[in-house]
Design brief:
Elements lengths: L4 H12 L31 E8 L9 E6 L12 H4 L6 E2 L2 H13 L5 E4 L5 H13 L6 E5 L5 H6 L4 E6 L6 H8 L4 H16 L5 E5 L8 H11 L4 E5 L20 H13 L4 E4 L3
Parallel strand pairs: 2-4, 4-5, 5-6, 7-8, 8-9
Antiparallel strand pairs: 1-2, 1-3
Helix pairs in contact: 1-4, 3-4, 7-8, 8-9
Length: 284
């Protein structure tokens, strides 16, 4: 983190004001979350965690990663792998900023290389409050923002000088699919703006963009890869093959099966054709 503890406290206070007319993601609901759950995410202004620990399953440059699993999400993906805590909010623990700070310090003591917040944007102010307290006690690990790509520039600007590495998804190149399968309007425009702001803040060298291949080309990987390349050809793009039809995917015939090797190869070819220079497959 480039900001001092005092500056992080000030940024956290600035961020908290956004809960009153929430614009913390690209839904731009403008609802008051200070009086309880509201908006597309149906979240209030508290922080709930599903768990945390030192994790070795991320991209090689990130491990060992201090993974913090945040409850709730600003997306509503019909095939969400973490639906139990992201969408159904099962097994969550309400966590105060001071408790989050203690957790962060503990992850650093256990050898974590970073603090990797998973689906964090909808509770950005609460996370900044925890980071501010942790910084008061000497916490200085790089912050990884592991998000769905449907961010708002307003929220991202609150993270400047705090986030060291952005790890967004680039889920769709087609707005109709994004709306049907994740409940997002104008996904591609939000993704483009988000990626551009992330690159401006941390540089392409500190960006890893994930694309989960969906069956039948429903995510339009050729459009996704062109969109990413228009922002920067230098970002790392991780093409991931692990899609499985979980949660409510069976209701949608187009995503009711896993992906095959040809579909993964097509997404990799699309990345290469778009001129992207740093392409991984399943992190390798």
């Amino acid at each position: 983190m480039k900001l001092s503890p005092r500056e992080i406290h000030a940024r956290a206070a600035e961020a908290r004001a956004h809960y009153a007319r929430c614009d913390l993601c690209a839904h731009l609901c403008r609802v008051d979350r200070t009086n309880g759950p509201a908006g597309a995410c149906q979240e209030g202004d508290g922080l709930f965690l599903a768990g945390a620990g030192v994790h070795f399953g991320e991209e090689p440059r990130l491990v060992p990663s201090g993974l913090i699993l945040v409850g709730g999400c600003n997306l509503a993906c019909e095939s969400c792998e973490t639906y139990e805590f992201s969408l159904e909010r099962r097994g969550l623990r309400k966590t105060s900023p001071a408790e989050l700070a203690s957790l962060l310090i503990d992850l650093a003591a256990k050898g974590a290389k970073n603090a990797n917040f998973v689906t964090p944007t909808h509770v950005l102010p609460a996370i900044l409050e925890g980071l501010a307290i942790a910084a008061d006690h000497g916490f200085s690990l790089p912050v990884v923002w592991n998000c769905g790509g449907y961010e708002s520039v307003e929220a991202l600007r609150l993270l400047e000088g705090i986030v060291s590495i952005y790890l967004p998804d680039a889920k769709y190149g087609d707005d109709a699919a994004a709306f049907e399968l994740s409940g997002c309007k104008s996904y591609t425009a939000a993704l483009r703006e988000s990626l551009a702001e992330m690159v401006r803040q941390v540089g392409a060298e500190n960006m890893i963009v994930r694309h989960l291949v969906l069956p039948g080309g429903v995510a339009s990987p050729e459009k996704v890869m062109r969109l990413i390349a228009e922002v920067s050809r230098e970002v790392v793009v991780n093409v991931m093959s692990q899609y499985r039809p979980v949660y409510r995917a069976a209701r949608f015939p187009v995503i009711a099966r896993g992906v095959d090797r040809d579909e993964v190869d097509a997404a990799v070819a699309a990345a290469n054709d778009a001129g992207l220079r740093n392409v991984l497959v399943d992190g390798i």
